[in-house]
Design a protein that fits this description.
globular; glutathione transferase activity; alpha+beta; GST C-terminal domain-containing protein; Glutaredoxin; Glutathione S-transferase Yfyf (Class Pi), Chain A, domain 2; four-stranded mixed beta sheet; two-stranded antiparallel sheet; single chain; binds glutathione; Glutathione_S-Trfase_N
């Protein structure tokens, strides 16, 4: 039997292409809406709270040459939207690990459009040409018009959402994996034989427990927390999410007062995962998702930390604020019916952050 990389061995859904509605243990109140769900805007429990469904393609690319999806230069393609934080963390890994020459990528248009004439679904589509908007390009592999087309090429009975990122296998013409937390781990460890930065380990064995524990509260309260604020349809779930969000941001601020990165003094996966939300915070979430109790730039440590991560080689090109703003303000008509894009604040994340100087000599215990 194929042995799986240790970082993924605990997962229950490996190497299965299954429909989310058939297997996930969901609360009764939520089951019907999940089966019907086609986009995140539909993922609503009866209480009016946003409840994200799990990804369904969970295959693993492995350095084991006998695996179904072995590491091969040029075989895999990453479909992203620059707007999407989950997809952006995959692109960040592609750059940081120096995999850009062995894994190609394409970004869709930022604003959701109708994906088919026969129904009302709104989702990610490819532009017809490279010239429409810098960064977005047509599908170079399958001539797909939308991300939905790719899922339908890969599976005839797929009933989940048509999300990015999508890690695509050019050889088997299928989706390998559509869960960013899996994809970043594969990029971190499996491609080292052909990566330009094989020694960069963002999930080192000695920090794994710490990273996992940190990811858990940051995902719940911050990464997914901003969506719970923005997509809430009743006051109570919003209040709950926003309280939790700011407790977690305050906790980060305190941690980052004592150490350069969120899990200590080395850059880890947990930083990349936190960054993708922070970089969107003042430009989008503060306004569009009503996360306005405090702005990121009012947190001195978090703000400079965000600049610090932005300035890691390979990171800045993964941040396309034009795509980010166009997407959020333009794709959720229930939240922003006229699609007006606020003009500010246009923060310069490449300005000095001072974190290496301030924290170099004082590594205090928390
Ligand atoms: N669990 C997925 C979540 C991905 C996800 O939610 N992507 C959003 C964009 S930010 C999406 O594609 N949504 C499409 C939709 O809701 O229809 C991951 O982390 O990879």
């Amino acid at each position: 039997m194929l042995s799986l990389p240790s970082f993924l061995q605990f997962r229950p859904l490996l190497n299965t292409n299954i429909s989310s509605s058939s297997t996930l243990p969901l609360p009764n109140s939520f089951k019907l809406s999940v089966r019907m769900a086609r986009s995140a805007l539909d993922e609503m429990s009866e209480s009016g709270a946003f409840a994200r469904t799990a990804s369904t393609f969970r295959n693993i690319i492995s350095r084991d040459p006998n695996s179904e999806f072995p590491v091969e230069s040029g075989r895999y393609h990453l479909y992203i939207s620059y707007a999407c934080p989950w997809a952006s963390r995959c692109l960040a890994y592609l750059n940081i690990k120096g995999l850009d020459k062995v894994i190609s990528f394409t970004s869709v248009n930022p604003i959701w459009e109708r994906t088919k004439e026969s129904d009302e679904h709104m989702g990610w589509v490819f532009p017809a040409t490279d010239a429409e908007l810098p960064g977005a390009g047509p599908d170079p592999l399958n001539g797909a018009k939308s991300i939905r087309d790719l899922y339908e090429l890969a599976s005839t009975n797929y009933s989940g959402k048509y999300t990015v990122p999508v890690l695509w296998d050019k050889k088997l013409k299928t989706v390998v994996n559509n869960e960013s937390s899996d994809i970043i781990r594969m990029f971190n460890s499996e491609f080292n034989a052909i990566a330009e930065n094989p020694d960069m380990d963002l999930y080192p064995p000695q920090l794994r427990a710490k990273i996992n524990e940190t990811n858990e509260w940051i995902y719940d309260a911050i990464n997914n927390g901003v969506y719970k604020c923005g997509f809430a349809r009743k006051q109570e779930p919003y209040d709950e999410a926003v309280t939790k969000l700011y407790e977690a941001l305050d906790k980060c601020e305190e941690i980052l007062d004592k150490q350069r990165y969120i899990c200590g003094n080395t850059l880890t996966e947990a930083d990349i995962r936190l960054f993708v939300t922070l970089i969107r915070f003042d430009e989008v979430y503060a306004v569009h998702f009503k996360c306005n109790k405090k702005l990121l730039r009012e947190y001195p440590n978090l703000f400079n930390y965000t600049k610090d991560i932005y300035q890691v080689p390979g990171m800045s090109s993964t941040v396309n604020m034009e795509h980010i703003k166009r997407h959020y303000y333009g794709s959720h008509p229930t939240i922003n019916p006229f699609g007006i894009i606020p003009s500010g604040p246009n923060i310069d994340y490449s300005s000095p952050h001072g974190r290496e100087r301030r924290l170099a000599t004082e590594t205090r215990e928390i």
